[in-house]
Specification:
408 residues; alpha/beta; eight-stranded mixed sheet; six-stranded parallel sheet; 18 helices; 14 strands; 16% strand
């Protein structure tokens, strides 16, 4: 069978969990023997097609003022014009229509379409193709994809411009045959606003980015005994890990300030990732030897830091769907200390596999850090591993096969 997947960005331009979900889906579909066609955007002037035995990648450059990942470089007025063009980008749609005509897929699975065109779902309906769509965030209601927890009732998110934008996206998207969400929260969020009225809306947890084969075969695992010995030598130290984009909405400053204000000397915080806040926060914490900024890292390096950590901090300030980093952390048996909000709360069993705190509250996070003990973390570590153990390796792709109406 042939499955076409459409997502706005893909490696090497990937930034977050959605791209990891797309990558893992492609890998698992190929393992099942299916042909996969990926359509994605590129900032390069030259479009290209890359073909292998089971995978064809079409990289198209949508005509617009700037490429999707460069939005932060432009002022609000320019971004507003960009969004208007993005919603009805007929140039991108024409290119995708040609690809779909040539490829004739059995299923089209769309993910994030911001930066390509919101006309794509209409194109898929017009071509009478079976359409599955995965929602990853609140992007169809709020163009930034972010709603700050403390300001969800403000005019910014409920005023006339936002309502007009949401009406446009709702009208353009219509109702795909199936809508997948990694959390019940996000389905409720959209359905309560009148989206996807005729769709089969289902919760399917994101696949785990790391596979057991990856874990066993990686070079860092061969040195795991040394890592364990190192941990024993510093068993009084508690290692915190923060992974992801270093942007304001991710709340990294909250955890940096909480550690800086903590009087515990046995706390170590490692921050992996890049973003517009990296330089400012590096300067802010430069005199605190307990805090280390590593920058953007490969999957292997990320995994090695999980192995050395006692607790992963997810300090988001915005609505989160089902953060991939939480499942990554559980995979390595590392419990999570996270902002208490909708999508995250579905994954955390308080005191069992993690702890929560009020989003953006430095004092609340500092108090949680102050009470951490190795005994407590060891107990939660075992429970975190159990979460992943209960998730069958093939569960995600088998559910997709059912939703695609294809044999497993």
């Amino acid at each position: 069978m042939k499955i076409t997947i459409i997502n706005n960005i893909y490696a090497p331009y990937d930034r977050g969990g959605a791209e990891q979900v797309v990558k893992k889906t492609i890998q698992e579909l190929i393992k099942k023997g299916h042909q996969v066609v990926l359509i994605t955007g590129t900032p390069e002037s030259e479009e290209c097609v890359k073909q292998s035995e089971h995978l064809t990648i079409y990289r198209i450059k949508p005509k617009n003022i700037f490429f999707y990942t460069s939005a932060h470089k432009f002022n609000p007025l320019v971004r507003l014009i960009w969004h208007g063009l993005n919603m009805v980008n007929i140039f991108a749609v024409k290119k995708i229509k040609t690809i779909l005509k040539n490829e004739q897929p059995d299923v089209v699975h769309t993910h994030n379409l911001m930066g390509l065109s919101f006309l794509i779902p209409r194109l898929i309906r017009f071509m009478k193709l079976y359409h599955v769509h995965t929602i990853h965030d609140v992007q169809l209601v709020e163009p930034s994809g972010m709603i700050l927890k403390q300001k969800e009732h403000s005019w910014r998110y409920n005023g006339l411009p936002t309502k007009i934008y949401a009406w446009c996206t709702k009208t353009l998207f219509g109702s795909p045959d199936v809508v997948i969400s990694p959390s019940q929260f996000l389905i409720n969020f959209y359905v309560s606003r009148g989206f996807f009225t005729q769709s089969n809306c289902v919760v399917v947890r994101n696949p785990i980015p790391f596979s057991r084969e990856f874990f066993v075969s990686s070079t860092f695992d061969k040195n795991s005994k040394a890592t364990d010995d190192s941990k024993k030598e510093t068993q009084q130290q508690i290692s915190l890990l923060c992974v992801g984009q270093i942007e304001k909405h991710k709340g990294v400053e909250t955890v940096v300030r909480a550690v800086m204000q903590s009087d515990r000397d046995n706390i170590k915080l490692v921050i992996l990732g890049s973003g517009s806040e990296l330089e400012r926060l590096s300067v802010l914490a430069k005199d605190d030897r307990r805090i280390t900024f590593v920058g953007r890292a490969t999957r292997e390096v990320v995994a090695s830091y999980f192995l050395q950590s006692d607790l992963t901090v997810v300090p988001s300030l915005c609505y989160e769907n089902s953060p991939t980093v939480i499942f990554e952390s559980f995979f390595f048996g590392v419990p999570v200390l996270a902002s208490k909000m909708e999508g995250i709360a579905e994954l955390i069993e308080e005191g069992k596999n993690g702890i929560t705190f009020e989003a953006g509250n430095v004092e609340a996070l500092q108090k949680q850090i102050a009470t951490l003990s190795h005994k407590q973390l060891k107990q939660m570590s075992g429970n975190a591993k159990e979460v992943i153990t209960k998730m069958k390796k093939s569960a995600y792709i088998d559910q997709l096969m059912d939703l695609y109406r294809l044999p497993r």
